[in-house]
Every structure is written in C-alpha cells, then in structure tokens.
Amino acid sequence: MDTHLTDDxxxxxxxxxxxxxxxxxxxxxxxxxxxxxxxxxxxxxxxxRHDTVVVSGIGCSSRIPAYTSVYGYHTVHGRSLxxxxxxxxxxxxxxxxxxxxxxxxxxxxxxxxxHACRRNVDMTYIVMDNQVYGxxxxxxxxxxxxxxxxxxxxxxxPGVNPIQxxxxxxxxxxxxVARGFSNNxxxxxxxxxxxxxxxxxSVIHILSPCVxxxxxxxxxxxxxxxxxxxxxxxxNEAMRAVLEDDGFGLGIFLAGNRRPFQPESTATHSIxxxxxxxxx
Amino acid sequence: MTVDSVTIxxxxxxxxxxxxxGQMLLDAAANVGWYGLMSRSTGPQIRGGEAAxxxxxxxxxxxxxxxxxxxxxxxxxxxxxxxxxxLPLSEKSVIIxxxxxxxVPAVLAASGAKQVELPIKELAGRIPxxxxxxxxxxxxxxxxxxxxxxxxxxxxxxxxxxxxxxxxASNAGIDxxxxxxxxxxxxxxxxxxxxxxxxxxxxxxxxxxGLGALKGGxxxxxxxxxxxxxxxxxxxxxNLAKTGGKLVQAEDELASIAMCLGASFSGxxxxxxxxxxxxxxxxxxxxxxxxxxxxxxxxxVQRGGPSTGIPTKSExxxxxxxxxxxxxxxxxxxxxxxxxxxxxxxxxxxxxxxEALQTPAIVLSDQAMGQSRAIVDKPADAPHKxxxxxxxxxxxxxxxxxxxxxxxxxxxxxIPGMPGGEHTADGLEHAENALPxxxxxxxxxxxxxxLRKLTSYDYGDAWADIEGEGEIAVVTWGSATGPSREAVRRxxxxxxxxxxxxIRLISPVQxxxxxAALDGVSKVLVVEQTHxxxxxxxxRGHYDLPGAVSVFSRPxxxxxxxxxxxxxxxxxx
Lengths: 280, 573
Prior knowledge:
The structure holds two protein chains of two kinds.
Chain A: E1 4-5, E2 10-11, H1 30-45, E3 52-56, E4 71-74, H2 80-90, E5 95-101, H3 102-106, H4 110-119, E6 123-129, H5 165-172, E7 176-181, H6 185-197, E8 201-207, H7 220-223, E9 225-226, H8 235-244, E10 249-255, H9 271-275
Parallel strand pairs in A: 3-4, 3-5, 5-6, 6-8, 7-8, 9-10
Antiparallel strand pairs in A: 1-2, 7-10
Chain B: E1 6-11, H1 18-31, E2 35-42, E3 51-58, E4 71-74, E5 94-97, H2 106-109, E6 114-117, H3 120-125, H4 132-144, H5 148-159, H6 164-182, E7 200-204, H7 205-216, E8 220-223, H8 230-242, E9 246-249, H9 253-265, E10 270-274, H10 276-292, E11 296-302, H11 319-324, E12 333-335, H12 342-357, E13 360-366, H13 367-370, E14 373-377, E15 424-426, H14 440-455, E16 464-468, E17 472-476, H15 481-493, E18 499-503, E19 505-507, H16 511-517, E20 523-528, H17 534-542, E21 548-553, H18 562-572
Parallel strand pairs in B: 1-4, 4-5, 5-6, 8-9, 8-10, 10-11, 11-13, 12-13, 17-18, 17-20, 20-21
Antiparallel strand pairs in B: 1-3, 2-3, 2-14, 7-14, 12-19, 16-18
C-alpha cells in the first residue's frame, strides 16, 4: 500500500482503494464520482483493505467492487443486502459496505431492503439512484416518474408512482439515513464516513445521474439543495421532515439509536455433549 | 410364540394424543432394548385434523415401514378415509375400536381384519385426568409384550415436571388399557430384545442432518421455515449457539441462501435447509456459489410436488431440480442419505465435500426420513470436517489468483482478513485473477476447472451403500433404500442371492464404480418414489446398466414397502 508521508500524516490515500480495472460506465456517469467518494471515505477512515468487504448485486453501480482493492463479492441481481448480512453476521469484525442501484435495491431486491432496514445489521448501503435501468439500456425503475415515456418497454410511461427511497428506509427502520449527490464526492465521502461510523444499518441514497438514458438529470445540479436541518435521532421527526422534502434535499436525515442486530455465541458445549441427548 | 416385527397405527383426530402415544411407545420400546421407527401421517391442519402415528418395532434394526399394519388402534375415526390408503391391512391384522366412536369405516373393515372392541373413552373417563391415548398405549403395550418398566421411565421423563397427579392419571390409563388387552391372545408378542446390542440413539432424520452439519464444522445457518424441513433449522438454532455458531432467520429462501453465501465467502462453513419450493427459489444463488466457488450446503427435505404439492408427505421428485435445476453448465454436488441415521453421515460428508471442492452441495433428504424418528445403533464417527484449501502464498501485491487454474481444479482460497488476498469474487465469468471476462478462452478454462475439481476428486467408498452378491441387483437411493434392503434380505433368506446398490453420491456420477458394483449382474431393478421415474432416467442418462432393467417407481404419498419390492424381485427371477 502506498503511504502518504508528511510531517504529521501517515495514512492511506484514496488511490490505495482503487483497482487497476477501468469502469464500464459511460463518460459523465455519476457513478465515477461516487466511486471517488467511496475511496476517499475509505482513506479517511483508514480502513484495512483486508478487513473490508464490499458486496453488490447487478447493474451499472453494482460493478464497483472490482474497481476497489478491498475484498468484494459481486453477486446476483437484488440479493446484495442478504449476502452482505451473511458476511457481517458471520464475521462481525469486518467492515461491510454494499453498493447498488435503484432497480437492484428497490425492485428485485425490495424485500431484502425492507428486512435489512428492520434487521439493522451494522453495515452501510450506498444506493446510486438514477431512476433508470442503465445496464439493460433504459427501462423504468421503481424510482422513475410515472409519465417518463423514453423507454421502449413502457412507451406510454410506466404509469405507476415512484417510491421515495429515503421515506421507505425510515418507514422500515433503518438507523441512519442520508442523501447525497454524485457531483460532490467530498460530501458523498463525508456521508459514507458518518454512515460507516454510525452503528446499525446505514442507508446513503445518492442521486447519481445517468447521462445516457436520463440526460435531463444533468440538471440535478441546480435542483439539489441542502436539506437544511440538523440530523435528528428521532425517526418520527425525520419522517415528518422527509415527507415535506422534494426528494432533492441533501444531508443526514436520521442518526438513530436503535441497537444493531448481531447475535453473539460462545461455545459452551462439545458436540459429544450434544450427542448424549440422543442416547437411549 | 413371538413375532420379529410388529407394525402399529395409532389413529385419532387432533387432541386425542395419537402422536404423543406413538412417541411414548417408541421411547418405551427403546428403553427395553427394541429397535423401532415412527413416522407420521398428518393432514395440513395446524392443530387437530386427522393424524396417525405409524410405529414399527423389532428386536433388530428397522429399515422401513412394515408390509402392513398388524394393529390399528383408533381413538376416533374422524377423516380416516383421507389416509386409509396409507394403512394397508390384511385378514391377519387387528383393528382395536372403541364402540362409542361408531363402526369401523368400511374402507378398513373390507380388509377382513379382526375387530376387537375396547371402550377407550369410557375407561379413560373413569380416571380423574384420564386420557384416551394412555389407555391405548396400555393396550398396545400389553399386546406386544412391552415390559412396564420401559413405559414407567417414559412417563417419568415426560410428566415428571407436571407432578404426581399427572403421572398417576397416565399410569391408571395405561393399567386400564393393559388389563383389557391382557386376555386377548392376539399372537403379536414381539421377540425379546437383544441386550448385547451397541449403544442406541433415538433420532429423527432432520435432527441427524442438523447433527451432521455440526460435526462437519458448520458455524452459520440462515433459516426460512418450510415443511418438512423446519425441524433441522429449529434443532440447529440452540445447538449452533452451544457450539459457537450462529443461526439467523431470513426473510425468504432467496435471502437464506444469499446469507449463507456471504458467511461462506468470509470463510465460515454454512448451511441452510428447505423443501422443494424453497430450493426452486434458491437455484439462482446456488449457481452463484458454483461460479464464485463459494461452498454452501443446502438440505432439501423433499415432499410431494410440484408447486405446493403435498407438504406433509414424502416423495423423491426433487431429484431433477437438484441435479439439473441450475442454469448454465453448473457442476455441483448432490448427495442423498440412505436412512434416518445416515442423514448424519451424509450431511457431514456434504459439508466436507462442499468445503474441499469449494462448491455448493445439495443434500436430498425427504419427509419420510426427516420427520420420522428411529431407534438406531449409534452411528460411527466419521472423519469428515470442513477444511477449505486456503492460500498460503499470496504472491505479493496484486498477484493473487483466486481462480487459479490448478491441476486439481481447486484454487487456494483467500478469505477476508488475509492481507494480500483481496479480490472480488464474481458470478460473472472471470479470468484466473477474478476480474470479469467474456473471452472464450477464460470461459473454457473456468468451466473445465469447475468440472475437473468435481470429477477428479476421490470420493472413496462412501459414494454408495453396496450389499450382497448375485446376478440380480436393486439400484436405488434415499429413503427407498430401506424397503429395498429389506426386500433383498428376504430374497437372500429364501436362498436367492441378490445385491443392493444405494447411490449416496448422486452427482457427480461415478460410472466406473457403478459398473464394478454391478459386474456380473444380469437383472437390475430400479426402485424410487417418483411419478416420472426420474432416478431411472437419470441412471439411463449417465450409466450403462447391465442386462434387463426394470423399474418400480411410484409417487408419494404411499411409502414404498419391502413386500412390494420383494414381490417385484420375485417376478423378475
């Protein structure tokens, strides 16, 4: 690992957390900046690469693990949160982060999202929302507007209302909920650091434009705005505020106090003792 | 005069306590040195509904259900017609019936079985706190000659905490039933137990599978309840905790297999248990385990299918999905225990194989083994442990090859916590360094390697149970092994040599070994419990079977009985 040596700083650099693999993303994709934010956050925290596991499903943003230099598991569509829960429950000492998109997380993986929020395992989910399936060339996702008519699959628009990921995360019991925007990787990094440090399940919703299938999202840079309130530890207060938000407010909505789920066990019996229970 | 086997059905709708009485009968028989088997016939009701405890007792180990029921004792006849087909009787059978519960249903009476009246309800009613099932237990105990000391120990164990009144009520009920039956002289007294026998266990197939997981070194289980596999998970919950492992309840089977893969990716041997519908949901992630070379064990306790099918009844019809259900060319392990006790060995072996070969292993148990309880000789300790090949030389920065194309096909694994082993395991096809690749050469190389590690491995003798000699052979698997074994032994006892080959290692196939096992055989009978003869077609697809091949194949829920296999064999000679 390269180390950055100055008079008073010895620590890893963001580049230490990048692999040599060139991303498959389109030029201008928001995910480049999110990747930069992720590696900055890892460097900021000085995570040991060998003690860090990143898990993803399928989709453009789910490609991130191979672009990092930590342990990664690029799994199947929609199941990243369940796989990551297995990692953290089995090996609580590891740092576990999950990367994915809106389709992977809220459509095919929706049930796991619900249960990851309520299970509250100590891990951090960075979901890059571009309101479209990019890898399959532009179909509506669960966060796409009902009247978006640019998909060949739903030329009249999907006709169903989008979900609000931040509100959903709060409703399902996530312990830390924040929103960032890919254009500001330093802020993305800050939110990730806060999320990783906060106990329990942290959801970081990142607006990350798809410049190929949703070019109008380039305009998000003038739509986003600071959320404008201090983080609360009260889910009810956070929920009330989120319901008034326009979906583009950035910041930390909730830093709650729910206890993470982490069953512990210590061997108290030998297998021979257990077997004795079967003896006639 | 005594008999060598007695088969008893205790029948009653919910609340009658038929299952409790059956369980106590089995436990009491175990206490006095007999062997036994208890299976259940239940409907879908959560509580109540028709139920029967099906118990077979013998001085020697019991391999499967009896040919017919020697005794049926009914606390009532509600809905018995729903499973009357599961209660074969003959004119030698005895139906013990309470006159207050009406006539013996015609479907049973037609067998010509002897009918004996016992006023069960009235006898129980005379005892404060008396229960019909204890009266029935007393009657059955007297008929088969079960010594009272065996029952006393069971009563003490079951009711000790409830106090003397409960014990006295049970004892009085048992005494009442015994007194009535003592004079019947039905000729069903069971031969004396062999006291010299080995240490014996009282265990169900589902418990045995759970124990096999523990003995193999499993430390993580993600669970989603499903009939008839739930008992594996419920047994593992406290026992994993006692041995330093963890069990977590998942939101569905998609999550349970995914959680297991995550735990295993981080180096912790993992297992889950399910039935056909759950296995269907898991298949995508099992394929991920194949591609990412992440070991995991899935116990499928088969039930009648397809779809929801018959959840409480047994069948062997998940063979095809277990072997062929993954998309792509996805070689993996499929094993099948050959008895209730063998659920221990086979599950333990599956953990060992999955870890050694870094691939998923499906254990095909079934309801007949999983939810039945047997008195068995204590299974021998097997050496099989989880022992994944870990990388010792990571080769310096960026040099580690997670999917190195080794001669054995097994690539030394790096797991989180090992500096220098960082890589991204992937379900995308990949190069040796784990990076995604769609190149033909990488695909070919990785497909070859993932197949080679399975086909070049030495599975030893455990691939099958092979018994006997002669020119006629039964080839079978799973819970069809028990009745097949008994049928072969009957043939031998009558002077005809015969062989039994029960294949434990379903996949990968072992053509050379089966050819050797069937050397000199001119007639083969394939025995299985499916409608579509799945096992026969599987054998035809992968093996050359010698001589004339016949098939005994029938779907559930009717169990295969030794008499049926025996008669089929006789017809072939």
